[in-house]
Amino acid sequence: MATKLRQSRDLDATLIVALTAKTMRHDRETALVTGCDGFISKPIDPFLFVGQVEAYLGGQRDRIEQGREGAALRQFSRQVVEHLETQLREAQDGNRKLLEVQSELEQHSRHLSRLLSLSKEIIPVQDAGEILARVLGQLHEDLGLGSLRVYRMHGSGAYYQGFSKGGDGLEETQVLAVTHPLATWAGSLPGGAPLTGAELRLSPAWELGIDLGLWDPKAQALLLPLSSRSEDGRLWGFLATDRIAPAFLPFEAELAGLYAGILQVSLENAGLIAHLAETSQALGSSYEGLESAYEALKDAQRALGTQNRKTALGGLFMNMAQQLQTPVQTLKEESAILSIFMDRPQVPAAHERAECHRSMDQIRKAISKVDGLVRALLRRAGQGEATAPEWIHLHDLLKEELDLMQAEGLLPDTCPVAFNLQAPRDLLFGVYKDFVEVIGHLIVHALGGSPRTIHLRTWGGKRHFRIEVEDDGGPIHPAVLEEAFEPFPDLRPQVEAGGRRPGQGLPACAQLMNAYGGTVQVLPTAEGTLVRLSLPME
């Protein structure tokens, strides 16, 4: 380190003092010859240490005894050479290990490449015998196996089918009962975990496997249980193999597990594809009947939708007809009164003229009410369709919609609405349906607390139009009121507060008013709430 520092021009004059536990004479000489200006050995003397540092800072420099420079340099060179030789040996050992690992990785890569290629090739294969032959044949070749046998559960669930791969190809072996001790013991093992070496030799399966001819007593053996992928805790089958030498490496056991997994999945997929093919054929034969039934169902659905709409509109028309009875009766009575005065040849007296004016005023009001109800009814009948912006008189809209809500039964007769419409300007350009939706949400919110009366007010100036809907249906907790305009109220955790809750349509009101540059507020009152809408008129 001192030598490297001395090679820098910026640090050439920097004071370097070695403070070290190396106290031999050659250690001191090595420190000085490599670039140190001083040498302090440990343990330090606390009474002298400060003075030693001050002396070096004051200009003191240690020197090697005359004639010792060469020996010190040779000692330093020997240490450097020994260090380099040690590093070289370590590098050589590391390189040898890397070459061994590289060779193993290349071998693993070849195995995995062959396995990947096999998995792609057998995807379209549907014949179980061909799948078994190709997977077991490649596994037998890659690991240099002796005997190789696989058992899988028969479709009946009564026994395990056995298949053996040897030098003569794939052969079917004797079946194995589901109650066989080896199958029972394999079913208690975790699926996909291979057993090899001493672990397998000391298990109950060793002697059972020798009796069945699964492995040679002198060979290295491997047993791999396979669990069912559709039924938990059930044994799908198992793979058993052996070879004379060498012992199975961990990677080879894992590779056998991968081959067994591909075999299981491929056989199950082949069975599923065959089943789907049969099902598809059965469905194809009845497709025409299903299509006809579907068309009939669509016709019935359209007819039912039309009938439901007619029923709903019919009920609404009946309610509207009842609402129209009063203004129509007024028109009849007042018209009769006017006809009496109009039949007189003389000029009506002053009190009779006043009665005529009163009758005309009642007729105008009745006509206005009938006209408003009819227009609201016509709009409601086509409210599912998109509407274009138009000039809207908001006062008329409020009255028409409330009359219509009473006719629909949404606004009960037991809850009167007190109007106080004082806004000097109520003409606004917008979509009629938007304001109908807003008024509906406000009334539903007001009805949430079963109020005795709802007060509807308008006020404002030249630039703003304000609507207030006040109810006396009970207060709302402040914590709940703060979240009144948050969207998706059903998806958020409910605030632990009892009592009344805000109307679920208030977030939609806020979004619609935002589109018109307006705002919505919910304010608590002594007996309920007050919802205030503010709209710009410019």
Describe what you observe in this structure.
This protein has 538 residues and is α+β, with helices and mostly antiparallel strands. The chain has 4 domains: 63 residues, Response regulator (Rossmann fold); 161 residues, GAF domain (Beta-Lactamase); 83 residues; 151 residues, Heat Shock Protein 90, CATH 3.30.565.10. It has 15 helices and 15 strands. The strands form 4 sheets. A 6-stranded antiparallel β-sheet has the order 5-4-3-8-7-6. β14 and β15 form a beta hairpin. It is flat. It starts with a helix and ends with a strand.
CATH architecture heading of the largest domain = 2-Layer Sandwich
Estimate the global geometry from the Cα principal axes. flat
- Helical percentage: 40-55%
Mean pLDDT: 83
Give the count of helical stretches. 15
Here the CATH topology of the largest domain equals Beta-Lactamase
Number of domains: 4
Q: Strand sequence of the main sheet, in spatial order? A: 5-4-3-8-7-6
Keywords, separated by commas or semicolons:
single chain; 538 residues; alpha+beta; Rossmann fold; Beta-Lactamase; six-stranded antiparallel β-sheet; five-stranded mixed β-sheet; 15 helices; flat
